[in-house]
């Protein structure tokens, strides 16, 4: 085939791809790009009340530049909401990661009643957040189950440190199964030969967990942590339903933006929402760049290895993976023996 013919064929494929993808881009533009542009536009304006030619008070929208953003710097309520959002994200994601990993390891083991246990673990995640918030508000009420079990009269939903603890417990109960589900998917693709090789060479349970399970399940765990981090940063319905609005001890940035909008302060509400959007975007970018760098480089290496395998005599990569895994298990075992010696 001549060079001009190949060029015309590629141009035709490019136009066809553009036509097929155009509906997707149109939908993304309506549901993603337009709301972001509209929020940024509103954040640069401020609604004021003026007198018209007839002497009547009317609302007018004036361009205010970055005034809505600069006013957030010295706003104690915004700073408290920013701190609460960061605190809930760090604490809940850390607890849910450890608890989800333990739950996944338990669900991965073969024992009688495992199917029932798996179904029971996933029930909290399947319940809508607003419903689970009502459930936990009843548990932490003044005459609820929590005080009955502890034998004390604690006002969990009144605010303060008790309200923070109640939010952390409720969020962990609901979303730890999500982390467990993703980690369990990663555990199920680890070949049994890896554990058999490590076990034959003398690696103990702790060595297999630390040197075999955790490195191989790390990509799934990082994806789960990133999803949970982005979800926790935009936490709204759980503290809103469980504790209520305008509670400084648990108010998040999403609640603050919602409350400003409900009071017709659209400019500050849009500025708060834009700051939260940038916060989530920067956190996700840093997370992928720092913690996900190894995962992405490994994926690229795997892709190159698959490409080489397709170009060579063996079209399948599984034998190479198994042999590498066995070598890793033997290396772990040798390391353990040398450590004991």
Automatic annotation (TrEMBL):
Protein family: Belongs to the binding-protein-dependent transport system permease family.
Subcellular locations according to the entry: Cell membrane; Membrane
Chain segments annotated as transmembrane: 16-41, 87-107, 119-139, 165-190, 211-230, 269-291
Gene3D superfamilies for the chain: MetI-like (1.10.3720.10)
Protein name according to UniProt: Multiple sugar transport system permease protein
A Pfam family this chain is assigned to: BPD_transp_1
Keywords assigned by UniProt, alphabetized: Membrane, Sugar transport, Transmembrane, Transmembrane helix, Transport
PANTHER family, per the entry: GLUCOSE IMPORT SYSTEM PERMEASE PROTEIN GLCT, TREHALOSE TRANSPORT SYSTEM PERMEASE PROTEIN SUGA
Topological category with respect to the lipid bilayer: Multi-pass membrane protein
GO cellular component: plasma membrane
Domain ABC transmembrane type-1 as annotated: residue spans: 82-287
InterPro entries given in the database record: MetI-like (IPR000515), MetI-like_sf (IPR035906), Sugar_ABC_transporter (IPR052730)
Region called Disordered, residue ranges: 302-341
Amino acid composition bias (Basic and acidic residues), ranges on this chain: 317-341
Highest taxon of the lineage: Bacteria
GO BP terms in the entry: transmembrane transport
């Amino acid at each position: 085939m001549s060079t001009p013919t190949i060029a015309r064929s590629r141009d035709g494929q490019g136009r066809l791809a553009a036509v097929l993808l155009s509906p997707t881009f149109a939908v993304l533009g309506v549901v993603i790009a337009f709301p972001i542009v509209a929020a940024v536009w509103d954040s640069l304006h401020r609604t004021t009340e003026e007198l018209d030619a007839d002497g009547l008070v009317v609302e007018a929208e004036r361009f205010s530049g970055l005034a809505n953003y600069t006013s957030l710097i010295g706003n104690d309520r915004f700073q408290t909401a920013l701190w609460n959002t960061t605190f809930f994200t760090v604490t809940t994601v850390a607890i849910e990661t450890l608890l989800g990993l333990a739950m996944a390891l338990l669900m991965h083991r073969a024992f009688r009643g495992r199917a029932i246990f798996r179904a029971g673990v996933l029930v909290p995640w399947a319940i809508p957040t607003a419903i689970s918030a009502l459930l936990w508000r009843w548990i932490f009420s003044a005459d609820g189950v929590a005080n009955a079990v502890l034998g004390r009269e604690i006002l969990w939903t009144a605010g303060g440190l008790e309200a923070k603890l109640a939010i952390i417990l409720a969020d962990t109960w609901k979303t730890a199964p999500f982390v467990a589900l993703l980690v369990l998917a990663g555990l199920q693709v680890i070949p049994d030969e890896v554990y058999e090789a490590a076990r034959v060479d003398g690696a103990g349970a702790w060595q297999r967990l630390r040197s075999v399970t955790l490195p191989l399940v790390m990509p799934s765990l990082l994806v789960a942590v990133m999803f949970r981090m982005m979800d926790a940063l935009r936490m709204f319905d759980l503290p809103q339903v469980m504790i209520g609005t305008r509670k400084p001890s648990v108010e998040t940035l999403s609640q603050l933006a919602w409350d400003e909008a409900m009071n017709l302060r659209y400019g500050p509400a849009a500025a708060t929402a834009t700051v939260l959007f940038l916060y989530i975007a920067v956190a996700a970018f840093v997370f992928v760049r720092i913690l996900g760098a190894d995962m992405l480089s490994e994926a690229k290496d795997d892709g190159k290895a698959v490409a080489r395998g397709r170009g060579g005599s063996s079209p399948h990569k599984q034998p190479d993976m198994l042999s590498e895994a066995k070598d890793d298990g033997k290396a772990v075992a040798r390391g353990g023996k040398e450590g004991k010696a």
